[in-house]
Amino acid sequence: MADDLSAVARFLYEAGTLKHTRRTGWWMAGVNDPESVAEHSWRTSLIASVIAKLEGAEPARAAFLAVWHDTQETRTGDVNHLGKKYAPAGGPQDVTADQTAGMPDVLASAIRELVAEYEAQDSPEAVCARDADKLECMLQGIEYKAQGYANAQRWIDNSRARLATETGRRLADELLGQGPLDWLRNALGEKV
After folding, report:
1. How far does the chain reach from its first CA to its final CA, in angstroms?
2. Average pLDDT, integer, range 165-179
3. What is the DSSP letter of 89?
4. Are 128 and 165 in contact (CB under 8 A)?
5. Residues in contact with 103: Cβ distance below 8 Å, sequence separation at least 6, in sequence order
6. pLDDT-based confidence at 1, cuts 50/70/90?
7. What number of CA atoms fall less than 13 Å from residue 84's CA on the CB side?
8. Most buried by CB count within 10 Å: which residue of 22, 119, 172, 183?
9. Mean pLDDT value of segment 48-70
10. Residue 84: its pLDDT value, please?
């Protein structure tokens, strides 16, 4: 390959920092050790593929958008809603442009286009990916609430209210009607 991949290699190391970057909004709910951005992004991608398939959109594209939706947080950190009021982070597209500088054009332009599509919400897949982001936050809130973090209810309610797709709203209702360990009871053949 003729293209220099040094910028890509640097980005792969950079992306790894998301495994250690905590989702800071949960600290306001009293959660001492919230999930990482990488953990959030993985489940968001999974949810995006499910929503997209059920909405008639392209599941792989929705998951792909979800994988990249928070990659800018390697440079900005996960700034919670209140923090953004006082210290607005650089726009996702500006951060992505910096992150992809020096990468082979075919890759850099593809990543920039993905982030722009997600931010613009101008495709069914982007809408599904955004709903997945909100649904994952709601789901995490349900899990934290079950662990005793009663203040997580605010995140549950706010995330549920921001869902745009019919599938996202229906999944939210199903999640709200179940407990975090109902899947295990069901798998073991226990009465749920």
Report:
1. 55
2. 98
3. P
4. yes
5. 7, 8, 11, 111
6. very low
7. 12
8. 172
9. 97
10. 77
The answer on pLDDT for 3 being more than 90 is no
Distance CA(19)–CA(105), nearest Å, equals 27
Question: How many other CB atoms are found less than 10 A from the CB of residue 40?
Answer: 24
Distance from C-alpha of 100 to C-alpha of 37, rounded to nearest angstrom: 19
**Residue 1 or 156, more confident:** 156
Please return the burial class of 111, using the count of CB atoms within 10 Å of its CB with bins 0-12, 13-18 and 19+: middle
How many residues in the chain?
192
Query: Rounded to whole angstroms, how far apart are CA atoms 172 and 177?
Result: 9
Looking up tokens 């975090």 gives 180
State which H helix or E strand residue 42 sits in: helix 37-55
